[in-house]
Amino acid sequence: MARTSSLSADMHPGDHSQSGSASIELKTSMLVPELHSEDFPLSDSIDTMQALILELGRRTKVKLINSKGDLIDFLDVRLNGKNINFFPDGLATRLQSGDQVLVRLIAIGGG
In CATH, which of 1.10.1740.10, 3.10.20.30, 3.20.20.70, 3.30.450.20 is domain 3-105? Predict the structure, then answer.
């Protein structure tokens, strides 16, 4: 079950989001440290899907993007309900205020 959460960006004095208070809704099945609210603020350093996935990986200490720059197997990433692989720019797709992002690890069977 996906847990609704968001990630607070490491913002420093003088940092500004792209449009003042631009944010996305982030849902994830991963336990991510420093979750504070349902809004994830966009910033100059986190403005694409790739930057968001890299930040999630950094905070969870899980490599979510492989050495080829592709998502790891068993990771489902959706932007506004659509799989990120179906966007023309893929992980380079820019995030916009109000976007809904789902990032979840897909459970696999085993003994």
Answer: 3.10.20.30
